Amino acid sequence: MAPVMGAIFCYFQLTNIDLERDFINTYVVKNKRQRYLGFIESPKRRGSFLEMLYHGQDLDKRLFQDLRGSGTHESQSIRNRFENLKNADRCYVISVNGALDGQEMLLNEAVDRALGQEGTLILFGNGAGVYYEGEPPYDRYLSL
User: Fold this and answer.
1) CA 27 to CA 42: how far, in whole Å?
2) pLDDT, position 144
């Protein structure tokens, strides 16, 4: 299958669609995975995938640490959590915010721009770490 818009991440060695597939296969509840894989295969159906991000209802929350009310949602805490992962200085952002969606960023830029953006995921490195920001009241989660 051809990469989305020909974009290949040199530091990930994966295409955008590969990263999104890996995210879905790891972090979306099993009975919804095929459905979301179908959403990302079609640019016309991408909005359905992004809608899930906003609400987060199909994420497997067992794989995440809830940051609400813990005081750990500060940007430096998120940076500290992922700075030791291989290639974590490079991130891929999936977001309902079109200015962020599909963007490759360095860790600091990704955290600065995505923190507070509802319906946004930051995939760190090869997707070994994930930060999720859902709808208010600021559902924030880090992968375990």
Assistant:
1) 20
2) 66
**Cβ contact 85:124 at 8 Å:** yes
> Which stretches within the chain are classed as H helix?
16-27, 33-41, 46-55, 75-82, 107-114
What values do phi and psi take at 2, rounded to 5? -75, 145
Q: What is the pLDDT of residue 109?
A: 92
φ/ψ (deg, to 5) at 69: 70, 5
Question: How confident is the model over 89-106, as pLDDT tens digits?
Answer: 788 999 999 999 999 999
Helices first, then strands: H and E counts in the chain: 5, 8
Q: What is the pLDDT of residues 72-90, one digit of tens each?
A: 556 777 787 777 776 677 8
DSSP secondary structure letters along 99-120: TTTTEEEEHHHHHHHHTT-SSE
Distance (Å, whole) CA 142 – CA 78? 8
